[in-house]
């Protein structure tokens, strides 16, 4: 099986790699500085993991997760996501701890957004002490990706219609200076609004005056034009 496992690098597209490198801001001083791309699209990565997951031994998974290439790290995270979704509560907690020990591999917004809701979300939703403590610590971190991880970890709870963690996260980043945090928190608020518009409106009544404009615009995206204008004017 090991010898038959195809390498992701055979799927590389140099032209697409250049496009992705620009899109994910890998230039000097940008948030993805120094990251490398093979030029593999997400549907292809998902199919690779689906077809080869059983052949990807622990050692191969570690190789992927520690790769210099963005798409190989993504493949490693997708393997964990698949395992978490099908795992018991104990297995989900184990995978959450494993991710937290290796969270440096999730060093761009797409890596976080694709993996964190399913890797950390179940343990946070069940209020596991290790995850609750880590959630609060990540929210206060100076590291951009730590804070985005904290915000995205609330998505699982939102899907379960438990909005407390997301409320806390979004209220905690109102003064954040990073646009990627404004977008993430606004997105979570919009997801709350899909399930309970009243909770979103309650948050807006409390915080709209101090919300970053991007965060507010993302949050109210599904409202009518009239209501969107009213909230933007009240800011």
Q: Report on the biggest sheet.
A: none
Task: Output the helix-strand order.
Answer: HHHHHHHHHHHHHHH
Secondary-structure class: mainly alpha
| N-to-C span | 59 Å
Question: In brief, what are we looking at here?
Answer:
This protein has 235 residues and is an all-alpha fold. It is built from 15 helices and no strands.
Descriptors:
single chain; 235 residues; mainly alpha; 66% helix; globular
Molecular structure report:
Helices cover 66% and strands 0% of the residues. The protein contains 15 helices and no strands. It has helices at residues 14-23, 42-52, 58-65, 70-86, 89-101, 109-119, 121-125, 129-139, 144-152, 155-159, 164-172, 179-195, 197-207, 213-219, 225-234. The chain is globular and about 55 Å long. The termini are far apart.
Fold topology:
Elements: H1 14-23, H2 42-52, H3 58-65, H4 70-86, H5 89-101, H6 109-119, H7 121-125, H8 129-139, H9 144-152, H10 155-159, H11 164-172, H12 179-195, H13 197-207, H14 213-219, H15 225-234
Helix pairs in contact: 2-4, 3-4, 4-5, 4-6, 6-9, 8-9, 9-12, 11-12, 12-13, 12-14
